[in-house]
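Notebook entry, structure prediction.
Reason for the run: the old model in the group folder had no record of what sequence produced it. Starting over properly, with the input documented here first.
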Amino acid sequence: MQTDIDPRSLIGRKAYDRNGHKIGTVDEVYLDDATGVPEWAAVRTGLFSRDAFVPLEPSELAENGLHIPYERALIKDAPDFGVGRHLSPEQELQLYRHYSLALPPAPSESPDTDFGHLAGQ
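New structure, fully documented this time:
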C-alpha cells in the first residue's frame, strides 16, 4: 500500500475483497509501533457485526475504497480483537498467521554494537 497516505483518510472508506465484493467499512487504522507506518485496518463487516482486521501492505487504495487481496470468507474469519485498543505482539502474530504473511524481522536489541563473535571464541 502507498505509505504516503494519511491513515485518517482510510477511516470510513468502503473495503472490498479480491473479487470486488464489498466487505464493509474501515473503522480503525493501526500503525506499526516502531515505524509509524499504517499496518492494519479494522473493517466493520456489518451493522450488528464485528470488526475484521486486514493487512494494509498487500492492499491497494483506489478512489472507490480499499481493495484487499483476500477472499471475503478469510477476511470475515480474521481474529477480532475489538477496536480502540493497542494490538499486542501476540495478536499481530495471530493476524500474520491468519493471512499467511511472512513474519516481520525481529527488532535487534542493539544493532549498532553487535559485530558478531570472532572465530574460535
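Summary: Helices lie at 72-76, 89-98.
The old model has been moved to the deprecated folder.
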